[in-house]
Amino acid sequence: MKPTELVGASPGPTFTITFDGRQLDALPGQSVAAVLWSVGILSWRTTRGGGRPRGAFCGIGQCYDCLATVNGAPNRRACLVTARPGDTVMTQEGNGHAGFED
Ligand code: FES
């Protein structure tokens, strides 16, 4: 049984976002993290020290493990950002400002 059937939800039509160049289907109201989880993507950031993979941990905006670059803006909490049609999400490396320093 699909999760939407379990809760009796009838979401609107899907739309597309892009993650690292990959087209992903999203449902209205899903967070960016939820869209990534729904296709099995669990990591979309690397740590500043050591480049270790990170994704969502708390899912409620408290831990900042889920930072991603969304539509060119780094350090967006993917668990709180609602996916919108045409969004471009990128894996964030380090502090998210690579290439912006002098
Ligand atoms: S998962 Fe903890 S802030 Fe997003």
UniProtKB/TrEMBL annotation:
The lineage of its organism: Bacteria, Bacillati, Actinomycetota, Actinomycetes, Kitasatosporales. It comes from Streptomyces venezuelae. This is Proline dehydrogenase. InterPro entries: 2Fe-2S-bd_N, 2Fe-2S_ferredoxin-like_sf. Keywords: Oxidoreductase. One of its GO terms (molecular function) is oxidoreductase activity. It comes from the Bacteria.
